Amino acid sequence: MIKKADRRDLDCLAMLGVLLWPEHTKAELEAEFAQCIDQDNAAFFLFFENGEPVGFAQCQLRQDYVEGASSSPVGYLEGIFVQPHARGKGYARALLQAGEQWAKQQGCKEFASDCEVCNTGSLQFHLKTGFKEANRIICLIKPLA
């Protein structure tokens, strides 16, 4: 079952979020999610299996430049995660479809995402669900003296 998350779900979203983004703490993600969960330009979706949350998707509207897009705003899949024991059952695809439907309701004509070049599992998921690769970039930075 998929549910559009609200403030009552912040704890559960952050618990799943830490599994996707382990470089962050649960408290950091809960605070970050709390800032955008009530905004019109963001939506979170939870997938429940037997009453337990096993996956989530974070979607937002981007009005700035989105690589490969020809319209604005663009729905954007900021993150998607399904716990390992619940994978292979179509839950991520269902979460993605919920995000796409939300974006359509917001007037979007396109939906975008990204993944790290080395994340072949994520790339395969995106390609299997209809995304087309728009570009590859390597981001660089150096400190200024």
Alpha carbon gyration radius: 15 Å
Oligomer: single chain
The number of distinct structural domains comes to 1
Structural class determined from secondary elements: alpha+beta
Q: Separation of termini? A: 53 Å
Instruction: Write the CATH homologous superfamily.
Output: Gcn5-related N-acetyltransferase (GNAT)
Q: What is the typical, i.e. mean, pLDDT?
A: 94
Please trace the helix and strand order, writing H or E for each element. EHHEEEHEH
- Tally of extended strands? 5
Strand and helix map with partners:
Elements: E1 2-4, H1 10-20, H2 26-36, E2 42-49, E3 52-62, E4 74-82, H3 91-105, E5 111-113, H4 120-128
Parallel strand pairs: 4-5
Antiparallel strand pairs: 1-2, 2-3, 3-4
Helix pairs in contact: 1-2
